Structure formats: structure tokens, C-alpha cells
Amino acid sequence: MFAQLSNRLAVALRNVRAKGRLTEADVDDALIEIRAALLEADVALSVVREFAKTIKARAVGAEVSAALNPGQQFVRIVSEELTTILGSNTRTFKFESGKPTIVMLLGLQGAGKTTLAGKLAVWAKSQQRTPLLVAADLQRPNAVDQLKVIAGQAEVAVYAPEPGNGVGDPVKVAKDAIKHAAGRNDVIIIDTAGRLAIDTDLVAQAAAIKKAVNPTETLLVIDAMIGQDAVITASTFNEQVGFDAAVLTKLDGDARGGAALSLVSITGKPIMFASVGEKLTDFDYFHPDRMASRILDQGDVLTLIEQAERAMDAEQSTKMAESLKSGDGFTLDDFLEQLQAVKKMGNLSSMLAMLPGAGKLQNQLDELDDKQLKRTEAIIQSMTPAERANPELLNGSRRARIAAGSGTSVVEINTLVKRFSEAQKMLKRGTIPGVGAIPGVARQPVKKVKPGKGARRSGNPAKRAQQG
């Protein structure tokens, strides 16, 4: 997700991050690279110009010049402004009180509306609601059948009185669905027709359905991979039909990110949800601050914890939360538990991509699969409890033993330990350099360790045994 943009911005910020003094020329040089990165990611020119203008105004003022670390202060400003153009605050879904919540989905053909309807239904179920999917896309061949299949996978009800394939009145279907839902369903999700491009018929039909049902939430489904076309589509729908918020699909693809970084500024409408995979559960709120953090390769610890909580039982979740907040930090035992939990979800690379600094390992993350997951599990399981709790114990002979026991190489063990150590340090501190505290993770005092402590083994065989 946004890998190309993240890499370009990392290069742009590298030169200023460690500067003890930041001149206006330094700021200008960094902004040249930042503008190039954003334009290459398909961000609208007007958004790029305003973004750069705001950053410069803040960066050459007292806010940076008076800072103890101007370079890191500059990175923080970039993070804050990224958050702003992504929408600043998370836009939550509105549920009606005392009557059904009606959701109307808009979008072009191929944006993923029908699949998104199923994802939204599964999400509504997780909020203790009883959703109904409505097949009002009567234009696209087999759209009705596809929605029926998705409803079956989501284990929710579907209202599909018309066969589709050009037959039936979508406005009547939408109105009748509300009557059908009375006493049965409290969330009604209407899947409407799309076109390859916006035309008069599409706009007229969408406007007629909206007028007939007066939806609680009108959501525009946007394919994140289509760049500037996404902004044009959103602007046209906003002007001619109107919508309350956008939903980005296919964020797990090789998206440049321009849609997400342009939509809010140009349309004035927030991004409410993000769809990041093929499973019906790969769907959740879009958090602007978390997305900005990921784009700048500073991780997304809160989402990581939330995903782990959904995959773990209550006891595991509590244990993991405490390990992050306590002075003991995040251990390899915690890491192994998360790997096993993510194995159930089937998306290891997505989880690891949320760790701070993951962008530096993008090529390795892209190559992660079930086979690699098993090798990582084997490495950790071949360690003693003491080694998993304190990787500093892993001297050369121990690493050779682990390599032999796990069927891997010492190089693979070195790589795993190095990656884990970088993430662990950041989590223990509870801060991200240049940005500040990680929300929800208490900052811990840095413990001073005497030279050699933890790495030196006792000469007493009994004590060596206790050390693991």
C-alpha cells in the first residue's frame, strides 16, 4: 500500500531528519523532492501546491527554528499536514435510532461496489446489526446473481426480486426493499448500477433512487488504483448526485495513492472506509492519522493491535496489550503469537507492513508467504524461552544451534532478530522519532544496561542452564 510514494518521501526526508539546523534552502530542497513524489503518485496538482505551501510556511517559522531537533520537527509537520489532507479525523458511520439505516452505494462499474456491499454487511453484523443486501444493480450482467452469492458468503439476507440483465425497475426495487425489511432488518444496503464512465442515464438513475429512499449514508465506492480518474469521478458524482463519504477499494494493490491524497481536498467529503483485501472481513474505518503514519513508514501500531485482537481470544489480547504498555516491551513470544494469529487471517505481509520502518523491507515483505511464515515460526520455536524473552542472549553458537534446529540459516536468524529489534525499540519507547507518542502505548523510561549485561554467559554451568 503506497509503497512507491513511501519510498520517495523517505528519500526526501532523509537529508533533513538528522539536521541540527534547518535553513530555508534545506526546506526548499526537501519540498522539491516531496512535490515530485506526490505528483508521481498521481496527487492532484492543486493539492500538491497547497500542501507544499503550508509546510514551507510552518517550516521556516519559529515552530522549527526554536525546536531542539529541527529536522525531526520538519518530519512531524509533514506528518500532520498529510493527516490534514487525508481528512484529519476518522468519519464514523451513522446508525439510525428507531428506524432502519439505509445505505446507498454509488460508483463506476469495476470499482467493487457489489463486493463492498458484502463487506459492509459483514462489518454491520460485527456491530450487532441485521443487514439486508438489496440487488438494485439491474444493468450489469449477472450482478444480481453475484450479490446473492456474496450474501450467502456473508450469511446475510438478500432482497432480489428482479433477475437483472437489463430487466426491472431499480427505483421500485429499492423502495420495496424498505417495506420488505420492516421488522426484519435494521441496516439496508442498496447496490446500484455503475457504468464504465459517468453518463446521463447513470446519474439520472442514481438520483432517482436517492430521492425515493432518502438514504442515511450515501457512499461513493472508489477504486484506489485509478489515480486522477478517481478524483474526476468523485467530483462529478458529488455535483450531480451527492454523497456523504467515500470508500476506497483495492488499497492492497499497487496503488500510487493519489486518490486518497486528493479526494478529501477536492470534494470536501471524507473517506469513511478502506477495503484492503479480497476477504469479506478485509474492511474497516479509514483513519487519516494512521494512514499518514504508514505513508511516512512510521508504522500503524493501533491497527496492528486491533487486527490482532480480532484474531486472538480475550486472554491473548489482554496479554499483548499489556506487553506493549509494560516495561517488558514486545517480545519474540508476542511476535510469534501474532504471526500465528495472522496465519488465521492469511495476510502476514500486511501485518508486518504496519511495523515502524517496514518500508525499508518492502521487497522482503512482498515475498512473504505461508512458506516464509512457517520458517519464521520454526526459528522462534527453536529458541529457548529465555532467548525469546531476551534476544541479546543470541550469540554465535546459539544462532548456529537455532539454525540447525529450524532448518534455516544463521543469516535468516540474523535478519529476523535485526528486524524485530528495530520494531521492539520503537514500541518500548512509545514514540516515533520526529512525530511523538504512539497513541495507546505508554512511553517507558529507557533502562540503562551495564556493558555486557544479558549477553555474557556465566562461567557456572548451573547458572548457564538457568539462562537458557
Automatic annotation (TrEMBL):
PANTHER family: SIGNAL RECOGNITION PARTICLE 54K PROTEIN SRP54, SIGNAL RECOGNITION PARTICLE SUBUNIT SRP54. GO terms for molecular function: 7S RNA binding; GTP binding; GTPase activity. Residues 433-468 are annotated as: Disordered. This is signal-recognition-particle GTPase. Belongs to the GTP-binding SRP family. SRP54 subfamily. SUPFAM superfamilies: P-loop containing nucleoside triphosphate hydrolases, Signal peptide-binding domain. It is an enzyme of class 3 (hydrolase). Transmembrane segments: none annotated. Pfam families: SRP54, SRP54_N, SRP_SPB. GO terms for cellular component: signal recognition particle, endoplasmic reticulum targeting. InterPro entries: AAA+_ATPase (IPR003593), P-loop_NTPase (IPR027417), Signal_recog_part_SRP54_M_sf (IPR036891), Signal_recog_particl_SRP54_hlx (IPR013822), Signal_recog_particle_SRP54_M (IPR004125), SRP (IPR004780), SRP54 (IPR022941), SRP54_GTPase_dom (IPR000897). PROSITE patterns: SRP54. Keywords: GTP-binding, Hydrolase, Nucleotide-binding, Ribonucleoprotein, RNA-binding, Signal recognition particle. Residues 270-283 form the SRP54-type proteins GTP-binding domain. Its EC number is 3.6.5.4. Residues 445-456 have a biased composition (Basic residues).
